[in-house]
């Protein structure tokens, strides 16, 4: 039996081999299509999204990472993941929450004296100038714990976390005003403002919702709690928000659900929340004059709650800051059109998507054309008065984004598992495309700005079900890329996202981002300031003050200075390290075995790790990034001497082992290496290399390595002159190490120039 099946396998593979021709010859496109079962459409989709090696994506997307508390960065159209930005959750690779500098950022997010080690990120927002993305900052909210974080897109690092002083949860953030004056955050589940206790029996009286306008200081890159304010709102479960723009500049919109103010209680024999919160036909859209509200707060008409300015409802009503309009039941998105003239809202429990006219709303407010007031005295504008049109798009409509074509929008249909393309001005459905499955948010390029770019739509799907190789009951999320450039929408590709459930994502033209590749030497990257612990080569030191041991060290290929750190059991150890590299992508890591110490140093960065050396023993430390051929040798020892340890007589470092012959051999190698390097250098300097940024940067790095080599050469020669052959040989070896790095960089520069077809030097 076995023989027979072997024979069959052999024959089959032989015939396949004969039919397909020798495996070494290139397969034709047709052959590949046949072998992989691909259609013409598949090929077209692949061609539209493929980015060859070294190529760049046209857009960069920032997606919330859901329960991971991170932000996920990926390219469009390739859908290649580029980075996870650690925001609310510790992340070891970036050492976020491991070094003292990033711990300080996470500590800003403590609540009620408690570390919160995760976040439920929902809505990222890119900073805007004149209503369009400017690529400078990214904001993201934490729904579970009412917080907003600020990420600087100069280096894609989280710089600040602010905690809501008044809410117990939130959802309607982060969204920014046209010039990023404010970042909005709306409460979700009502609770007494400021966190006090009150029984549910007093829900209508004591529980409140609200919106916070966080003031952003662009120059400092920081939200300013002292200049921020909130508006008290009824306990209607405020949901998503959006800022007005152009026509509706100065206003903001926040929708709500459960305006029934139901309080649940299954265990008390009452129907559940889901029944009580869907009893009515409509909920309320909150229309807020934030510009005027800012003046009211500045005029001292706000009440302080936990030191924070809150404009109470009575004041808000009196000053004409807040209005309500009925909206379709249990809505989930409120989206202002690029010209600011329309506000689109879909109710999950209504198959119609509602389009409100800003002009009609404005007219009603001016004419005081209100039907009645809500139980708290807020004026209500009739639905018919404000409505422009309503369009039946499909079941479970949620979120809307806009196209570059005027009047065209895309709305997600959660229940139908479809994306709808429609005309919100003329109230017409244009096209629908099935997605896989149960779409939540969707996103077009610059799709919530004054200037959407069209081209692509991404569907952020809640379920993947059968789309990918099975990996157990917890499935990855599925983001689907859709081509919206043609008459009909067409699906291009699926991207599994295995890191929490993303809710919303925003995509910016890649060219608008200008991230750095290195820091000024000695930068505390979390504050952007030069660290007081910045350490240059030659300044490394270990200091003791009582039980406190402080190390100032450096990292550069391929050694950690110092390499031996000796402390006593029980010492408190603080290690400040600076990465001295200028070269692109030369990050070094640092860990000490068994001490839960971990860090990451990008070129120029200074960061700090600290611990108590409470276990005696020998603990190797090393660099955790494979940074060079001698990366494994980027090592050292932490020696923790037991209490009362006495050195034994005769404890010596290992014996010297190199002599003059070894030294001369090494020097001969170095001289030969230098010849090669000189050849490469004259090749490069003989070309117009300065016109090629990559080659010029590589050459600069190589020149730096050669300077180090020269320093080592001098040390070696000094030792040799004194007859210290052992030491001289080792320094000569280090001289050679720098030569090797210089040669490596130089050759990369040379290859780059050859490939780029560089001409002779001018
Ligand atoms: Cu629809 Cu938080 Cu915007 Cu989830 S949210 S989908
Ligand atoms: Cu530095 Cu490995």
Short description:
The chain is of the alpha+beta class and 762 residues long. It has 13 helices and 42 strands.
What does this structure look like?
The chain has 762 residues and is of the alpha+beta class. Helices cover 22% and strands 34% of the residues. The chain contains 13 helices and 42 strands. The strands form 10 sheets. A 6-stranded mixed beta sheet has the order 8-9-10-11-16-15. Strand 6 and strand 7 form a beta hairpin. Helix 11 runs parallel beside helix 13 and helix 12 runs antiparallel to helix 13. The radius of gyration is 32 Å and the shape is globular. The N terminus is likely disordered. It binds sulfanyl-(tricuprio-$l^{4}-sulfanyl)copper (K7E) and dinuclear copper ion. The site of sulfanyl-(tricuprio-$l^{4}-sulfanyl)copper has 10 residues, from strand 4 and strand 28.
């Amino acid at each position: 039996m076995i023989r027979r099946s072997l024979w069959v396998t052999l024959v089959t593979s032989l015939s396949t081999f004969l039919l397909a021709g020798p495996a070494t010859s290139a397969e034709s496109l047709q052959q590949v299509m046949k072998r992989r079962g691909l259609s013409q459409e598949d090929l077209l989709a692949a061609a539209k999204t493929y980015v060859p090696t070294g190529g760049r994506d046209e857009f960069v997307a920032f997606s919330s990472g859901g329960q991971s508390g991170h932000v996920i960065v990926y390219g469009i159209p390739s859908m290649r993941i580029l980075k996870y930005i650690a925001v609310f959750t510790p992340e070891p690779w970036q050492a976020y929450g491991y070094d003292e500098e990033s711990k300080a950022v996470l500590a800003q997010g403590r609540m009620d004296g408690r570390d919160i080690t995760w976040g439920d990120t929902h809505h990222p927002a890119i900073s805007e100038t004149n209503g369009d993305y400017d690529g400078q900052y990214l904001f993201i909210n934490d729904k579970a714990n009412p917080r907003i974080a600020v990420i600087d897109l100069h280096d894609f690092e989280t710089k600040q976390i602010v905690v809501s002083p008044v809410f117990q949860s939130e959802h309607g953030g982060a969204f920014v005003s046209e010039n990023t004056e404010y970042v909005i955050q709306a409460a979700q589940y009502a609770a007494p403002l400021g966190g006090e206790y009150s029984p549910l029996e007093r829900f209508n009286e004591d529980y409140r919702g609200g919106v916070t306008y966080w003031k952003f200081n662009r120059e400092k890159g920081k939200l300013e709690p002292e200049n921020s304010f909130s508006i008290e709102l009824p306990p209607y479960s405020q949901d998503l928000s959006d800022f007005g723009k152009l026509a509706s500049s100065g206003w903001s919109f926040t929708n709500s659900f459960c305006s029934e103010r139901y309080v649940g209680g299954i265990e008390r024999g009452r129907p559940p929340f889901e029944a009580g919160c869907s009893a009515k036909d409509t909920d309320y859209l909150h229309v807020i004059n934030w510009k005027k509200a800012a003046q009211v707060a500045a005029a001292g008409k706000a009440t302080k709650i936990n030191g924070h300015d809150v404009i109470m409802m009575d004041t808000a009503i009196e000053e004409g800051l807040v209005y309500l309009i009925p909206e379709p039941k249990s809505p989930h998105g409120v989206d202002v059109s690029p010209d600011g003239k329309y506000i689109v809202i879909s109710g999950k429990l209504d198959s119609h998507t509602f389009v409100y006219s800003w002009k009609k709303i404005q007219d009603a407010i001016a004419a005081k054309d209100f039907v009645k007031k809500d139980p708290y005295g807020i004026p209500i504008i009739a639905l018919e008065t404000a409505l422009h049109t309503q369009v039946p798009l499909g079941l479970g409509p949620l979120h809307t984004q806009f196209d570059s074509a005027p009047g065209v929008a895309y709305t997600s249909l959660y229940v139908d598992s479809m994306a709808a393309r429609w005309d919100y001005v003329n109230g017409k459905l244009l096209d629908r495309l099935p997605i896989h499955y149960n779409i939540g948010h969707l996103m077009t390029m610059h799709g919530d700005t004054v200037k959407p770019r069209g081209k692509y739509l991404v569907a952020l799907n809640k379920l993947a079900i059968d789309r990918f190789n099975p990996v157990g009951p917890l499935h990855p999320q599925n983001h689907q890329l859709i081509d919206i450039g043609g008459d009909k929408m067409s699906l291009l590709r699926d991207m599994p996202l295995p890191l929490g459930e993303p809710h919303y994502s925003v995509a910016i033209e890649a060219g608008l981002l200008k991230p750095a590749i290195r820091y000024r030497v000695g930068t505390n990257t979390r504050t952007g300031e030069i660290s007081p612990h910045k350490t240059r080569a030659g300044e490394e030191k270990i200091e003791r003050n009582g039980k406190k041991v402080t190390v100032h060290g450096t990292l550069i290929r391929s050694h950690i200075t110092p390499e031996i750190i000796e402390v006593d059991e029980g010492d408190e150890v603080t290690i400040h390290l600076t990465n001295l590299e200028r070269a692109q992508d030369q990050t070094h890591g640092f860990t000490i075995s068994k001490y839960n110490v971990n860090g990451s140093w990008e070129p120029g960065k200074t960061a700090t790790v600290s611990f108590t050396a409470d276990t005696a023993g020998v603990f190797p430390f090393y660099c955790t990034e494979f940074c060079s051929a001698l990366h494994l040798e980027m090592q050292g020892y932490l020696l923790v001497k037991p209490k009362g340890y006495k050195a034994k007589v005769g404890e010596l470092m290992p014996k010297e082992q190199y002599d003059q012959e070894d030294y001369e051999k090494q020097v001969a190698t170095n001289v030969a290496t230098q010849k090669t390097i000189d050849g490469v250098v004259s090749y490069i300097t003989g070309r117009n290399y300065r016109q090629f940024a990559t080659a010029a940067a590589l050459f600069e790095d190589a020149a730096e390595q050669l300077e180090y080599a020269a320093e080592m050469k001098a040390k070696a020669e000094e030792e040799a002159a004194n007859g210290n052959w052992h030491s001289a040989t080792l320094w000569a070896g280090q001289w050679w190490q720098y030569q090797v790095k210089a040669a490596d960089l130089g050759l990369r520069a040379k290859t780059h120039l050859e490939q780029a077809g560089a001409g002779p030097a001018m």
